[in-house]
Specification:
By secondary structure, the chain is of the alpha+beta class. About 25% of the residues lie in helices and about 35% in strands. It has helices spanning about 20-45, 60-75, and strands at about 55, 75-80, 85, 95-100, 100-105, 105-110, 115-120, 125-130, 135-140, 145-150, 155-160, 175-179. The chain is elongated, with a radius of gyration of 24 Å. Bound molecules: dinuclear copper ion.
């Protein structure tokens, strides 16, 4: 038998298990189990992948709710594109829209207060990545992801898209203020 010629006994599963082979199978199996339980452990203790509630939605329904909050609580606009900066009351529902290639609007939250952050994508998959905290949530069209957040640090945070979404993916950045 060699790498080129097939073995004379072709039914490989009838060959006795070599000790080295068995050892590697055992190591691989144990490692699979470690990685499997790490998924659960990481979710609970990793602080990066938050638990979200997820509901079905449509772009129309979601943007109507987002627009309502923007109309009510915009305090100023920023940049040449006049992106609204929305400061919703503590404890309320806040909406963030992901679309090619922007996060809208800019949110201004208060430190130590709890908000219900609603996220959806209008078109394709986007990734919500809050920097430098490194909190990551996949944002999927057709679904409304709700995260209960309590900012514990004030400052200016960047929201970057970490799911490749086309030619301007690298420019899909947003901002979040915590006062
Ligand atoms: Cu949106 Cu990448």
């Amino acid at each position: 038998m060699s790498a080129i010629h097939p073995p004379s006994e072709r039914l490989w599963w009838k060959h006795p298990l070599d000790r080295v082979e068995g050892t590697w199978i055992a190591i691989a199996f144990v490692w699979c189990m470690v990685m499997f339980f790490m998924m659960v452990w990481w979710h609970a203790y990793g602080r990066q992948n938050l638990s979200t509630e997820t509901y079905r939605t449509t772009p129309e329904k979601f943007s109507a709710k987002a627009q309502e909050v923007v109309d009510k609580y915009t305090v100023r606009t920023e940049t040449d594109q006049k992106i609204p900066v929305v400061a919703p009351p503590a404890g309320s529902d806040v909406y963030l829209v992901a679309r090619l290639w922007a996060w809208w609007p800019i949110l201004e939250l208060e430190k130590g207060r709890t908000y219900r952050l609603h996220l959806t994508a209008m078109d394709y998959n986007h990734g919500f990545s809050l920097q430098p905290s490194n909190i990551n949530i996949q944002v999927v069209p057709g679904f409304e992801h709700v995260v209960t957040v309590t900012p514990n640090q004030s400052g200016s945070f960047s929201i970057v898209c970490n799911e490749y979404c086309g030619i301007n993916h690298h420019a899909m950045v947003g901002r979040l203020y915590v006062k």
